[in-house]
Amino acid sequence: MSTSANRGAFIVFEGCDKSGKSTQCSLLVERLNRDGISAQLLKFPDRTTTIGKMIDSYLQQSCQLEDHSIHLLFAANRWEAMPKMNELLNSGVTLVVDRYSFSGVAFSSAKPELSMEWCREPERGLLRPDRVFYLTVGAEVASQRGDFGAERYEKKDFQAKVATMFDKLKDDSWTVINADKAVTELSNEIFEHAMNVINSAQTEKLGKLWL
Ligand code: DGP
Ligand code: NA
Ligand code: NA
């Protein structure tokens, strides 16, 4: 591997359900590619793998899984993607990732049985994102968006708990973005933030999460 080649940036989007993350992730990747910056969209959970299919069936409420056990499957679904993500980043591809370990900890620790400390453990040592864009919308706005309530965690009181967990996980690698605005305005704002991250990532080493 050439030492002079620039690595890609690792950008994560987080937020409660229906915060507009998925739309913004896609728009960002399109815009970057249009501007000649090599970027790829990834999403967790990745429902296409063997582990991902179990997660999908849990989320669609077609099976029950014990709380600790499903937490470990979500983490395993990230670990199985590490070799590919490492390779892409080191070959200069910027990764725009729709949810990551912060969703892992926030959603699981919102359950009464699971502590934040326990939830962090299986996520430790995963690649650390250069920046987290945390999209916020009011609970009222989110719950009125298309098919809210279709999946397991899409309940207003649970989402409010998840939001308090996200607040506890927040550190200075997060940019909090008010997502309660027009799609285009929001995507322009996010693009500006992303360009700063991509430029500064080139001189920084990739880190490991929570070590
Ligand atoms: P999405 O496909 O982004 O809508 O995510 C599916 C749902 O699963 C959503 O309610 C957020 C939740 N979720 C995402 N990642 C994790 C995780 O690692 N652990 C848990 N418990 N929930 C997660
Ligand atoms: Na969802
Ligand atoms: Na808890």
UniProtKB/TrEMBL annotation:
It comes from Littorina saxatilis. CDD domains: TMPK. The lineage of its organism: Eukaryota, Metazoa, Spiralia, Lophotrochozoa, Mollusca. This is Thymidylate kinase. It comes from the Eukaryota. Residues 13-190 form the Thymidylate kinase-like domain. Pfam families: Thymidylate_kin. One of its GO terms (molecular function) is ATP binding. Signal peptide: none annotated. Keywords: ATP-binding, Kinase, Nucleotide biosynthesis, Nucleotide-binding, Transferase. The keyword ATP-binding applies. One of its GO terms (biological process) is dUDP biosynthetic process. SUPFAM superfamilies: P-loop containing nucleoside triphosphate hydrolases. One of its GO terms (cellular component) is nucleus. PANTHER family: THYMIDYLATE KINASE (PTHR10344). Belongs to the thymidylate kinase family. Pathway: Pyrimidine metabolism; dTTP biosynthesis. Its EC number is 2.7.4.9.
